[in-house]
Amino acid sequence: MYIYIYLLIEGVLASLLCQDGKFRKLGEYLLFCFLLFLTILVVFRDGIGADYFTYVMHFQNTSDITELTTSDFLLLEPGYVILSAILRYLHAPFEILSFLLLIIIILNFKKVFPYFSSNLSLSFFLYVALFFLSFNFNVIRHGVMAAFVWNACHYWLESKKVSAIFLLVLGALFHVLSLTFLLIIPICCSSKRYPIYIYILVLIFSFFIAKYPDVILQIFDRLLVPLVGTDNRLAFYLSGGHEGELNEVTFSIGLFFNIFICFISLFSFTDRKRFFLSNMLFVGIVSFLVFNSFGALSQRLASVCYIANIFLVPALMSKVRISKWRFCFFLFAVLYGILMFWRELTKETGYYIPYQFIF
């Protein structure tokens, strides 16, 4: 537990120092140390995360690159399998795989953060607080996919659509849901601004579907499931993780925070980037509600879109002109990040506590 408390303290302190020009260099140094510490936690963990032993087992059971068969690709996407197979051929340990996956995430976000964020240190802290534990300890392939998707968003907004599509395909090599963003990104990039009441009506309808999901369940059962056939990965997402029951976290504080940030952003920003971020966040909210009865599907799609939060919150903070109120906004954002981090950390199904190193 103490190691996570230290992680939060270092992250908050680094982000806070970066807000003041006098201490910016010290803050940037602490941010580098923060990133290094995160890398150590990811690479040298032992038994941390609900899926840790499953990932280790898959890695150990993967044939090396010269002996791969179709059976190696039955449960996991080809990119993850091939990378594992190369490392197996080189007799590298699982820790090297963890390191390489983290590097892939970092290299993608290295372009994304400067492009979307008006406050890099705060965005970085919010990413760690809201997504780090899940993306790097549990749903690792999903975390890699999310990084590719957001890099694709950056290229799409720059009108480099071929590069964006290529990145989405690369993301699909680690998680098949990357391909859904071939549709989502163009929708969010639309220059047409709909009246706010359209967003409100869609949101109300989404809440209705979340509460009474029988209609959407029947559509999936009759139309999509037969098309899936025997694909284990897609069948998992369409099989109804909650079997028609309302997801227990639907009406959580996190959802209403996302709704608040989304609508404030829609009112506050007119530039293309921020409008895109607002739309991505809105799509995440709607996806989470509409596909609520399919627990894995709703959470996977929504979490990728929710990354928009880490860029919208600093953008909203920058619009506060009075310094003391801007500082209060900063403290509120940090406090929210800490609460969400603590909530994820203390989940019984997370298996984050106690932290153990391999050595």
From TrEMBL:
Q: Which residues cross the membrane?
A: 29-48, 80-107, 119-140, 164-184, 196-213, 249-269, 276-295, 301-318, 325-342
Q: Which residues form the signal peptide?
A: none
**InterPro entries attached to this UniProt entry:** EpsG-like
**Which Pfam family, giving just one, matches this sequence?**
EpsG
Q: Does the keyword Transmembrane apply?
A: yes
Keywords on this record? Membrane, Transmembrane, Transmembrane helix
Domain of life (superkingdom): Bacteria
Q: Is the Nuclease keyword given for this protein?
A: no
Q: What is this protein called?
A: EpsG family protein
- What species was this sequence derived from? Bacteroides clarus
